[in-house]
Amino acid sequence: MNNKTLGVLALLGAPSMAIGIYVEDQFKPLANSWWTGVWGIVYITAWMGSMVALNRIGATGSSRFGRTLPLIMLGTLAIANVSNGWQLVAPTFKPTLFWALDMCWPLSNVLMLIYGITVIVANRLPGWQRFVPLLCGLWLPMALTSKFWLPSELGFSLVTAYSAVAWSLLALVILTNHRSGHAAAPLSHV
């Protein structure tokens, strides 16, 4: 799959968390149900596509850390998607293993913060595009901050809108990058 296709899929999946959470807020029986697994799979799979495309572009640079971090990100995202699949097929069965797998959701967000800083330092993306992965990485700190400092309805609206905008911008980075049209080299190995 080339980067343009990955960018389109990332753009389509970018608002899925915001939509999923909104639907769950409006239709309470869907909260923490199979529906959560559906939107979670769409969201994480789109994120994984973005990571593959950014890796092909070389967004994190050529240092050992810059080559390894995207692979770690993809690993945590894949594990998070296993928990999404579990949520889809067995939403009420949640032993300790489920919660261990599910911890890769917040871990992936923490890693995205580090990833965003790495992209800025590597300076491989042009202009404003260099800052978009960090914008995505700031989602978790923003979500946690809004939970404690903003009224719940305002925080909910702000965090879900922020997610949709940040991940859409990341997809646009992939779509507008001059290397996006090429099926570039596969994921680098360490």
Automatic annotation (TrEMBL):
Domain of life: Bacteria
Keywords: Membrane, Transmembrane, Transmembrane helix
Regions crossing the membrane: 34-57, 69-86, 98-122, 131-150, 156-175
Protein name, per record: Uncharacterized protein
The species this protein was found in: Fibrisoma montanum
Upper classification of the organism: Bacteria, Pseudomonadati, Bacteroidota, Cytophagia, Cytophagales
